[in-house]
Structures are given as C-alpha cells and as structure tokens.
From TrEMBL:
Organism per entry: Methylorubrum rhodesianum
Protein name: LysR family transcriptional regulator
Positions of the UniProt region annotated as Disordered: 304-323
Keyword check for Transcription regulation: yes
Annotated ranges, domain HTH lysR-type: 5-62
Keywords: DNA-binding, Transcription, Transcription regulation
Family membership noted in the UniProt record: Belongs to the LysR transcriptional regulatory family.
InterPro entries, alphabetized: LysR-type_TF_proteobact-type (IPR058163), LysR_HTH_N (IPR000847), LysR_subst-bd (IPR005119), WH-like_DNA-bd_sf (IPR036388), WH_DNA-bd_sf (IPR036390)
CDD domains given in the database record: PBP2_CrgA_like (cd08422)
Length: 323
C-alpha cells in the first residue's frame, strides 16, 4: 500500500508542474509557498531525480519531470474525480465553480440566464464568472472551464462545441439612405466597412444556397471590439459584421438595419474549454446543463432576431424614405 504522503506529494507536484509556478500553485492549494517548495524538494529526494529546474525568473520541467507529469496526471485527475463523484452521490454536486467568458452582449443577456437557472438547481455549487477577452489562461488563473468564441490554439485543451451564433451585416438607416442599400455582395466593395480587427481590408465569404462569393471589404475605421464597431455603425460610419443577437435592440428600435439578409456569413461557434476530460462533478453538471440550454437559447434568439430584424428593417426603410 502506498504511503499516504506519497499520493499527496504526487498531487502537489502535478499542481506545480501544470502552473509552472510555486506561488500560483500555493494560492490554489491554500498553503504557504515555503511548505509547498519543501514538500516538492523532499519528493524529488525520495524519487532520486530532479523533476523541476528552478531559477529566480521561471520554473521549468526537466525531461524526467515531463515524463513523470504525463504518467501521474491521469492518476491525480481520476482520484479527484472519484472523490467528487462520492461527494455528489452523498449531497449532490458541490464546490466553487470558476468560469471565464467573453464580455459580449449575448453573454450578459443569455448566458447569465442559463447560469441563473443552473444555480437555482444546484444550491451547493457557488458559481463565479469572470468576463475576460481571449486568450484565457485556464491553468494559471485556476478556471474550471471557459466559454470561448475562438477555438484555442493549445492542442492540450479539451474543446466542446455547444452552439453557433448567426452573423449578419448591418448599417444605420441614415448611412444607407446616403450611400444606398447593397442588393448583391459585390456592392459591399463600394461601401465603408467597419472592421472589428486591425487592418484596412478583409475578405468576407457570403453564401446563399449553393452560391458562394468572396468579397474584399474595407474602410477608414477599424477596432478590436465588436461592441465599439457596433457603436460606429449606429453612428452612421459604415457597415459592420455582427452577431445578430448582439444587435437585436438596435434592430427593434430602428438604429440598425440588416442588409443582404438572404446571404449568410459564417456563424460564430461557441465552445466550452477545459484542461481535462476528467472533470469534477460540479463542472460536468454545468456543462451538461448549459450545453442543452445555451444551444436552445441562442438558436431561439437568432430566429427571433431574424424575424424581428426584418420587420425593423422595413420600418426603418419607410422612415428613411418618408419625406
């Protein structure tokens, strides 16, 4: 039978190795840095191999440490999951669930409702949400999972696609009255387009049934914020590409109008991202619940916006054309 301290030291090593930081690991574990460092040193002495290279600026795994981390990570994760499952059987999923999500309007409006419903069903889970732009350091910032609209580049992360958000092209009635409303994708090349990224031009691919058209668009304004691009569009500075559920209020009030509604831009995927497939019960419960609810909520919101946007667009057009 393994010594109990050996199993604990294995778990401590995994925490430090994943975070590559004694201070972050100590904070997550709720123990002094000095105690954690001493335990890892004693563990290395017992093993007889140096697992970590420590300098004043960084901490790195040795080749032995890399190999050992691969071997013991699954054991530690399975032990934690087994414990969580036992606790879940006894009193239901519980604990502190830390989520990261993008600061987009649809998150504030729709994901907040999903989290509220989940919390009402799981009184023993405390949910904390951080609104943070990508990229997100799940391990370093101790997140259980992240909501993302861009697939992470790190191949070690586990990515689950849960929904898609429809995109469209929008402009203010004043801008369209002055510059004209595009009737085909090629017309976009003659318009000012506000790009939500750095650059003076971009290529958009629009589809209608079997048709596909690639168009180069550009304009004098760009920014790194979808919300700011929307504000520029409302102010009449040009057309912008946006998630339809981010502009539903603008459509219903006539501040924006959808153009080329029969042509589709690629949808924005929504992902749940975790560091492991072996998740504690609190995280599994949230993912199972939110996957079903969020997909339905976003699909309904996109459908409502398309129908409402068409009505608002026709109303705004009448206002713009009236004497």
């Amino acid at each position: 039978m393994p010594h109990p301290q050996l199993l604990r030291d294995m778990a401590l090593f995994v925490e430090v190795a994943r975070r590559k930081s004694f201070s972050q690991a100590a904070a997550a574990l709720g123990m002094p840095i000095s105690s954690l460092s001493r335990r890892i040193t004693m563990f290395e002495s017992m093993v007889g191999l140096r697992l970590l290279d420590r300098t004043t600026r960084k901490l790195a795994l040795t080749s032995y440490g890399e190999a050992y981390l691969t071997q013991v990570s699954r054991l530690v994760d399975e032990a934690q999951r087994t414990f969580d499952d036992m606790m879940a059987v006894a009193k239901g999923p519980s604990g502190f669930l830390k989520l990261a999500a993008p600061p987009d309007f649809w998150v504030l409006r729709h994901l907040s409702g999903v989290i509220t419903e989940f919390s009402a069903l799981h009184e023993h889970i405390h949910v904390h949400v951080d609104l943070k732009p990508a990229p997100i350091d799940l391990v370093g910032d101790n997140y259980d999972l992240a909501v993302a609209i861009e697939e992470p580049r790190e191949t070690s992360l586990i990515v689950r696609k849960v929904a898609e958000v429809e995109n469209g092209i929008f402009g203010s009635p004043a801008y369209l009255a002055e510059r004209g409303t595009p009737v085909s994708p090629i017309d976009l090349e003659d318009h000012q387009v506000i790009l939500p990224m750095q650059g003076t031009s971009a290529t958009w691919t629009l589809k209608r049934g079997e048709e596909s058209v690639a168009i180069t668009v550009g304009g004098p304004l760009s920014c790194n914020s979808l919300s700011l691009a929307r504000r520029f569009a409302v102010a009449g500075q040009g057309l912008t590409r946006a998630n339809v559920i981010n502009v539903d209020n603008d459509l219903s009030t006539g501040r924006l109008q959808r153009v080329l509604p029969d042509w589709n831009l690629p949808s924005t995927p929504v992902y749940f991202v975790t560091t492991s497939r072996l998740l504690p019960a609190k995280a599994r419960s949230f993912i199972d619940f939110a996957t079903k609810r969020l997909a339905a909520v976003l699909a309904n919101a996109s459908g409502d916006t398309r129908r409402g946007g068409a009505r608002a667009g026709r109303s705004a057009e009448r206002v713009a054309l009236s004497p």
